[in-house]
């Protein structure tokens, strides 16, 4: 939710550092609304929302660990 809400507000995600211990970033209603918007299904089931959230989380973790998304690369190659 934290990534999606920042993306929705067009904030810079290159400098964003996810903090899982940072507490809640919004209400449950806001999170659900955001997930439903980005899931791009007109009436998603809980399974579809869960699969979307798990897959997005997996991809975000992989990108955070990638050398291509390191601070050195983002500083030298803006928008990469």
From TrEMBL:
InterPro entries referenced in this protein's UniProt entry, alphabetically: RNF213
Record GO terms (molecular function): ATP hydrolysis activity; ligase activity; ubiquitin-protein transferase activity
Keywords: Ligase
Protein name: RN213 ligase
Organism listed in the record: Upupa epops (Eurasian hoopoe)
Organism taxonomic ancestry: Eukaryota, Metazoa, Chordata, Craniata, Vertebrata
């Amino acid at each position: 939710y934290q990534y999606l809400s920042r993306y929705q507000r067009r904030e810079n995600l290159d400098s964003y550092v996810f903090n899982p211990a940072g507490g809640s970033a919004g209400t449950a209603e806001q999170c659900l609304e955001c997930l439903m918007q980005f899931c791009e299904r007109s009436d998603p089931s809980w399974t579809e929302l869960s699969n979307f959230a798990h897959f997005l989380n997996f991809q975000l973790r992989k990108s955070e660990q990638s050398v291509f998304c390191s601070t050195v690369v983002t500083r030298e190659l803006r928008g990469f």
